[in-house]
Write a structure and sequence with these properties.
There is one protein chain. With 455 residues, the chain is of the alpha/beta class. It folds into two domains: 196 residues, NAD(P)-binding Rossmann-like Domain (Rossmann fold), CATH 3.40.50.720; 220 residues, Rossmann fold (3-Layer(aba) Sandwich). The protein contains 19 helices and 14 strands. A six-stranded parallel β-sheet has the order 3-2-1-4-5-6, with helices on both faces. A six-stranded parallel β-sheet has the order 11-10-9-12-13-14, with helices on both faces. Strands 7-8 form a two-stranded parallel ribbon. Strand 1, helix 1 and strand 2 form a beta-alpha-beta unit. Helix 18 runs antiparallel to helix 19.
Length: 455
């Protein structure tokens, strides 16, 4: 099939490369000429595991092209696949400016040749696709769109390629058999069931899915905060409830809360949608409150462990909102950084993928051990694997004081008890018992090797 992907941001590039790998002929269009030039040369403006080789192969095979000539690209394909961004407005509603710029009657009437299928991949409020179709029907003589479909994306940053090619399910909101058959052909080769439903249901499915996952994170963080007060290990609690098949273990990792470009935005949009129709959504409101408060847990732990934060040197390990991405949008690290800066702390940071950071009080280093040099505390904010492989002897020799605050509960508690004892470290996490050691004596030279095996 011939497909024009409109919008070459994160979703657009992933979708374009993956569709090309399935054998489709893809044109990716975007108004950003610099980005288009970069992509056309096989280089990515983002980091996403496995995407670059997929893109380079599609380019080499002649399956994908990039252009900033949107009008031309519309005329070249059977399917218009819209992946433009829909960020939050100040009132919480989704900003559909980019979408309406694309779904421009004059543009489509002038550029389209023959009948087309318009697939809205972007996350949009309920009723948006109906409005798009109505607009096009009002100008049917000029816009020969066969149908409008909503096909929400469920990509996770860090695993977007397998999420696209091997998803749990595919949701297609459409109103005609012709559109249904076209979408079935589009996804041929992807081993997943397709749920066909009406467009409004598909639009709500995306918001409801993200909201449920966000609530699950806030729920386990609420239980973690209770566990802190009761001196209970929340990991044991999470394992116990996650073993129930009705609940499942995913998204039960406690820590500093969710962030990124989707969950916060979609939670706000769902709240706004409820308000617009007079429907209260108290669970959504509560999940947002828990998430907003969670970074303060890290601040409180640091305050209780250090005599003062003013002048304290603190190293932040991890800035991205999650591992396997360089995305810092709505990252919990932003909140933690601002809180610590307001307390007068001196902040160093290291993230394997983040080099530019918007908070001027944070000095970003490209070497982890430079970032922790002479620090009073290390705070783990992103669950990168390399932080699980820290050389604890080198850490102890590098820092000024041995306080580790794990905001992601990424280090095994039993292993850290042994490490803390050997190297005189204090290890604090979220919803798990503290590991406190005040003695700072030299470790047996063979200790680290033995401890590594236990971690």
């Amino acid at each position: 099939m011939k497909i024009t992907v409109i919008g070459s941001g994160y979703v657009g590039v992933v979708a374009g490369a993956c569709l090309a790998s399935l054998g489709h002929e893809v044109i990716c269009a975007d108004s950003d000429s610099e980005k288009i030039g970069l992509l056309a040369s096989g280089k990515l403006p983002i980091f996403e595991e496995g995407l670059e080789p997929l893109l380079k192969k599609a380019l080499a095979d002649g399956r994908i092209r990039f252009t900033n000539e949107l009008d031309w690209s519309i005329g070249q394909s059977d399917i218009l696949y819209i992946t433009v961004g829909t960020p939050s407005r100040s009132d919480g509603e989704a900003d559909l400016t980019a979408l309406w710029s694309v779904v421009n009657v004059n543009r489509i009437a002038h550029s389209a040749r023959g009948r087309k299928l318009l697939v809205v991949k972007s996350t949009v409020p309920v009723g948006t696709c109906d409005s798009v179709e109505q607009l096009l029907r009002d100008h049917a003589a000029r816009c020969r769109i066969v149908d409008v479909v909503h096909n929400p994306e469920f990509l996770r940053q860090g695993s977007a390629v397998p999420d696209f090619l091997r998803p749990d399910r595919i949701v297609v909101g459409c109103n005609t058999e012709e559109a249904r058959l076209a979408m079935k052909e589009l996804h041929a080769g992807i081993p997943a069931s397709i749920q066909y439903c009406d467009r409004r249901s598909a639009e709500l499915i995306k918001y409801a899915s993200n909201a449920f996952l966000a609530m699950k994170i806030s729920f386990v963080n609420m239980i973690a905060n209770l566990s802190d007060k009761l001196d209970i290990d929340v990991d044991e609690v999470a394992e116990g409830i996650g073993s129930d098949r009705r609940i499942g273990p995913l998204f039960l990792q406690s820590g500093i809360g969710y962030g990124g470009s989707c969950f916060p935005k979609d939670m706000k949009a769902l709240q706004t949608l409820g308000q617009s129709v007079g429907c209260e959504l108290p669970l959504i409101d509560a999940a947002e409150r828990v998430n907003a408060a969670q970074p303060h847990v890290i601040l409180d732990k640091l305050k209780s462990a250090l005599s003062t934060l003013r002048g304290a040197r603190i190293a932040l390990l991890g800035l991205a909102f999650k591992s396997m991405t360089d995305d810092i949008r709505e990252a919990p690290s932003l909140v933690v950084s601002r809180l610590l800066a307001a307390e007068g702390a001196i902040l160093n940071a290291y993230d394997p993928m983040v080099r530019r950071y918007p908070i001027r009080e944070v000095a970003v280093h490209d070497d982890m051990y430079l970032a922790i040099r002479a620090c009073d505390a290390i705070v783990l904010l992103t669950e990168w694997d390399e932080f699980r492989l820290l050389d604890w002897r080198k850490v102890r020799e590098t820092v000024r004081a041995g306080l580790i605050v794990d905001g992601r509960n990424m280090l095994a508690l039993d292993g850290m008890k042994a490490v803390a004892e050997a190297y005189g470290l204090t290890y604090l996490s979220v919803g798990r018992p503290a590991v406190v050691n005040v003695a700072i004596g030299p470790a047996d030279p063979g200790t680290f090797n033995r401890l590594s095996a236990r971690l």
